[in-house]
Target: Solute carrier family 12 member 6
Amino acid sequence: MYKTRDGGGGTAEGGGVEKQASLDTNLYLYQEELEDRPQVSTLLNSLANYSNTIPAATDPDQAKPGGGGAAGGGGARMGTLIGVFLPCIQNIFGVILFIRLTWVVGTAGALCGFLIVLTCCCVTMLTAISMSAIATNGVVPAGGSYFMISRSLGPECGGAVGMLFYTGTTLAAAMYIVGAVEIVITYMAPWLSIYGDFTKDAEIMYNNFRVYGTGLLIIMSLIVYVGVTFVNKFATVALACVIFSIIAVYVGIAVNFQGNDKLFMCVLGERLLKDIPLENCTKEIGSPLWDIFCEDPINMRGCDSYFENNNVSMVRGIKGLASGTFFNNIDNGFLELGQFIAQTKRPEVIENLSERTYNQVYADITTSFTILIGIFFPSVTGIMAGSNRSGDLADAQLSIPRGTIAAIATTSTVYLSSVLLFAGTVDNLLLRDKFGQSIGGKLVVANIAWPNEWVILIGSFLSTLGAGLQSLTGAPRLLQAIAKDGIIPFLQPFAVSSSRGEPTRALILTVCICQCGVLLGNVDILAPLLSMFFLMCYGFVNLACALQTLLRTPNWRPRFKFYHWSLSLIGLSLCISVMFMTSWFYALIAMGMAGLIYKYIEYRGAEKEWGDGIRGLALSAARFSLLRLEEGPPHTKNWRPQVLILCKPDTELNPKYKKMLAFASQLKGGKGLNIGAAVYPGDYVPNVTDVIAVKENLKKAMEKEKVKGFADVLATSDVPEGISHVVQTIGLGGLKPNTVILGWPNGWSKARHAHSWANFLQTVRTVSAARMALLVPKGILAFPESTEKVSGFIDVWWIVHDGGLLMLLPFLLRQHRTWKNCKLRIFTVAQLEDNSIQMKKDLKLFLYHLRIEAEVQVIEMMDSDISAYTYERTLVMEQRNQMLRELRLNKKESQGVVQNLVDFNPDALTEEKLPLVQAIVDSHHGTDAKAASKVRFTEPGAASEEGEAPAEAGDAPSSKTGSPLPSHKADKEAEAAKEEAVKAAEANASSNKSVTVDEGNVKRMHTAVKLNEVIVNKSHEAQLVILNLPGPPKDSSPERESNYMDFLEVLTEGLEKVLMVRGGGREVITIYS
Model:
């Protein structure tokens, strides 16, 4: 029965036919869904083949053609020991262990030194716990902290931390290079110094480091560029050197349990001396010390007072654990720059009271607990090495937690035990001698080790070189991965690989940054600086874990169970604390750099959706805020317009009047809630494509006009009901619009049916019933663009008080650059029984308390006599309603009658066919009946509901009502025109029974006419006129609704830009603070 699906199946491939037949038989119920949704088997297959990793540092020349290399590469699945534990060990143990740990112990003392190391180890251990939770929450691609944080906290945080991690790795390479040069120049080959004896001046030593460091950087860069294979193989050698060196130190401490006599120091009183051979360590007359400390050694005159008053002694450097020197090393020996290294901290001993230092060893930097944390912290970094290799691990979710935590536990044990062993083995003075100047420029750790100091010197040099090569290899690949993610546009050039597959451009940038670090020339400066970048990374890892745990996101299901959000928060707190303890200046630099990158990615970066925790945090915060808002209505002081913009789509499915969006943007200044809503006429299912197009076009229009908010579309066959549903239901909880912007129905009077104004009035009634404020801009095409600047007046005609919205709106508009140069004028109307002088005083006082600057005018409307013009306008309105009601014309005939009565377009008329109402308007305003009046009932460029073309720009209404005719001739012609108009009206109604004019309509028309007269007189030059929108009629008959529209038309004729406002029935502005 399914054979016909492949045309009989005569020539189809057998396997495909069988598979299709099976699919048709077993899954026919889901056939339509399978057309655009994959089968489960297809999905699983794609997941199994998924790969998204930073390319491994492999030699491109080793790639085998024909795909042979792929097979071989697939078998490189490493376990916990080889893949995670040993790489972490290699990266954690670094140059600081060999050249600075003894100095840290001696300066800080055994107790503070132990706390320094413990604090740093706690940071990495807590970070490792958080990292293990993240790494076991699904498949983690290579890339270490960058990928974990970016996928957990979003592209902004991920990009910022990725760049920090890259900078820290690059500066780590610089530190390793400077450390390697220090080992060679200071301890292995002092004769290589270019600038002379560096023991006399520290700057000479640092200049040597800069020169040799630059040369070593060039050589290492060429190695990384040319021979990646060598880097990978050398890593094994470096790891072996590190392990063997540490073993040699432990064995040496055991061998020297009783101490040894290989190292002695020369001490003057309590001060440590340098550059003195042991045989010359004496105060005998004629000894070299007299030549150093005395100006006239022959006569023993001009000698340093401290030298004269103290004897010289030799102190054994390696005393051994059995000596009890540990208790002498418990207290700290923190010093200021330039103070002497001595056995006590008495001021007369450590302070330099003379201008010369002679050959006494002094502190080259100021030391404190916090500074030493910053210097030591790089020794515990490198915990990401295992996660960086997750793509090569047989079981990454098992190996990463075990290997990383085991490596940190091992290295922490080594560091903490070394602190105690060094404090119990080495004399305090020798521990505090940073460069070993008192023992002839020897490395202290090297002289502890067994069997020979060269084991440590060569081992530490090679391990430092290996660590530097690894950093120079990994940093460019990390930069390339960030560039390929496309979240930082200016990094796009670095996403390119060379023909050999190497990130050459990224390597060049890395070398340049590394050179800047080398030029600093001092490990003690580089170490705290790169500590900041690593601490920022570790802090973000802890933050990511804490957020995911606290938010309880459904996707947060780590296999590693030994974590808790409190541990992550403690780790984050420690990271921030250590940063500021080390150097508040460097901490602010690192945070500022992260903040700038974050804002840059947020502003210019590509859109990425990684299911990050920040979005989950935003959702939780939004839920919490919405529940808080639901507790009650906002206080008057907190009220602000949350705008719902009702946008009508045109035939192209674009918003018909985009200037409504521009006006909303000017009103809100991009702040608060804005919702653009459109109602599509038609059912949803058959028109779903058009509905989506309307929504996308509305979003684009909002973005173009810089309206920050949301867009939504409702499809319904009943547009008024659809608008009612939108007004009632849009928003969520307390975050609902309280203000509606509704467009004026242009050309309503020319329409063939009442829908044009019925929809408008039903929406006005719905908004009023919902107790929402309503803004109706009339003449929207004449409103300024958001890029324009207008100057002049914003006139507020305050007729009735409905919550103070009329006062608040111009204030908000003037916050925008478009209306900023406009001045505010407030008009109010005084009746016969009102005291206009007192009203003006009260209004000024009210505005003073509102802190609103405005010019105040009170308009007196004492004439309550209804003019003939009012009767005439009312008569014509009633005649039209009666004719349409009694004759029950079809649409075409009705349009003909209405067109003859209310077509006000003079461009389409001859002098002989001037319409009736236009003649009445012109006669009322004192305008030549034969001249085209600039007063219009319709909007500039308005089109009728039946698709009439908009008026030309030249037809825009003027702020003036016309040129009055001079002398009595004008009055006579106006009276004649008025009489002719009345006669024409009577003639048109001669076939009907007499029209009874409703007294209420006459009064309403009178109000509209009189107000329009004073408004046009006072505000014809205003940039915007804001006035109260009269309430809609309670009677919903077509006649009453048409009359209401006529009243509004009369009220606003002769005005170019009008904003009619109706409050929501609550106070929105207050004089109280």
